[in-house]
């Protein structure tokens, strides 16, 4: 019996040191699993908005940022933001004022979309340079940081449930699969015929969507191909900078309306329910805090139970 209890205890320790801690948020006191965050370019802040509502008088989660745009969670729970004004990426997990804070990555030109894959690889879109950089190691960007080049205005990045990495090219009016990296000059695109694509997301069923910011539409591009004559999934939006599917909702950020709508019903979204409003000036990218896998939590609880039994004996 004692041997079995020790085994349970060691399982708990291994779970906590390995899978358990990797899946749990790093700053549980401030960030809860499933929390929704949004970047607001002016005055350079990030808001925590898990339940929606009016944020016109709310205190931001993070301030002192220089024209922030990209926002992404690491699998371990850390929250990072890409700052266009300073050309940096900063870890803002602790919340507070980050004016003058040491960055995680520096030396960027015009960073936009930020993606951290399930394996922890950190990629950032450099809009003006037409590149996507791998900045996983942090520090100052070097020529060796280039992951994908030859892109026409790369803005937002998405890792699909199947492991593909897609990038929206706003100046090329297309979405390209850059999973393997390399030079994509003149290369084939995954989806074409789009009108200035910005935000990218995937729903629970694996369907892929992209916003067309000037036409105010959201296109279903799941199968790839030419979408120049396709009907949109949703229309009637005012400069939809970002979309995100999470927790059964389909969020659409209206950059010039300072709000976020729930467009899960599709169709004419001009009258869609407002999820969040009063988001200062120019709300942009969204990010959701990672939720631990049920199996991982079970391992942690099993281990803790084993430790408890061992102590009682």
Provide structural commentary.
There is one protein chain. This protein is mainly β. It folds into two domains: 1-24 and 292-313; 27-291, Neuraminidase (6 Propeller). The chain is 13% helix and 40% strand. The chain has helices at residues 2-23, 294-312; strands spanning 36-42, 45-48, 53-54, 62-63, 68-73, 79-83, 88-91, 96-97, 105-106, 111-116, 122-126, 131-134, 139-140, 146-149, 154-159, 165-169, 174-177, 182-183, 191-192, 197-202, 208-212, 217-220, 225-226, 234-235, 240-246, 249-254, 259-262, 267-268, 274-277, 281-288. The strands form ten sheets. A five-stranded mixed beta sheet has the order 3-29-27-26-25, with no helix packed on it. Strand 15 and strand 16 form a beta hairpin. The longest helix has 22 residues, at 2-23. The protein is globular, with a radius of gyration of 21 Å. The model is unreliable at 1-29, 297-304 and 309-313 (pLDDT under 50).
N/C terminus separation: 10 Å
User: Tell me, what is the CATH class of the largest domain?
Assistant: Mainly Beta
CATH architecture of the largest domain: 6 Propeller
Specify the helix fraction band.
10-25%
Number-wise, the strands total 30
Low-confidence stretches: 1-29, 297-304, 309-313
Mean pLDDT: 88
Look up the CATH topology of the largest domain. Answer: Neuraminidase
Q: Quaternary state, please? A: single chain
- Structurally, the number of domains stands at 2
- Tally of individual helices: 2
- The rounded Rg comes to 21 Å
Quick one: overall form? globular
Strand content: 35-45%
Major sheet: 5 strands, mixed
Structure classification? mainly beta
**Spatial ordering of strands, largest sheet:** 3-29-27-26-25
According to CATH, the homologous superfamily of the largest domain is TolB, C-terminal domain
């Amino acid at each position: 019996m004692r041997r079995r209890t020790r085994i349970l205890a060691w399982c708990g320790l291994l779970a906590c040191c390995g899978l358990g801690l990797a899946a749990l948020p790093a700053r549980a006191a401030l960030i809860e699993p499933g929390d929704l965050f949004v970047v607001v370019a002016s005055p350079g802040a990030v808001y925590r908005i898990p339940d929606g509502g009016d944020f016109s008088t709310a205190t931001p989660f993070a301030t002192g940022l220089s024209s922030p745009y990209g926002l992404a969670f690491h699998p371990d729970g850390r929250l990072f933001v890409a700052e266009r004004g300073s050309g940096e990426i900063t870890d803002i997990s602790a919340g507070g004022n980050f004016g003058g804070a040491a960055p995680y990555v520096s030396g960027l030109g015009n960073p936009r979309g930020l993606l951290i894959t399930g394996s922890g690889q950190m990629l950032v879109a450099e809009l003006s340079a037409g590149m996507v950089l791998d900045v996983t190691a942090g520090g100052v960007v070097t020529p060796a940081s280039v992951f994908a080049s030859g892109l026409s205005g790369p803005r937002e990045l998405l890792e699909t449930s199947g492991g593909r990495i897609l990038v929206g090219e706003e100046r090329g009016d297309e979405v390209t699969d850059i999973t393997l990296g390399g030079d994509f000059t003149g290369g084939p695109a995954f989806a074409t015929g789009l009108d200035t694509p910005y935000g990218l997301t995937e729903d629970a069923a694996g369907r892929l969507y992209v916003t067309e910011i000037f036409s105010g539409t959201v296109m279903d591009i799941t199968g790839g191909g030419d979408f120049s004559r396709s009907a949109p999934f949703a229309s009637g939006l005012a400069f939809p900078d970002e979309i995100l599917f999470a927790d059964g909702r389909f969020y659409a950020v209206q950059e010039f309306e300072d709000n976020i709508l729930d467009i899960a019903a599709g169709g004419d979204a001009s009258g869609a329910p407002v999820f969040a409003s009063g988001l200062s000036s120019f709300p942009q990218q969204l990010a959701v805090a990672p939720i631990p896998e049920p199996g991982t939590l079970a391992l942690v609880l099993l281990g803790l139970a084993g430790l408890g039994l061992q102590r009682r004996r």
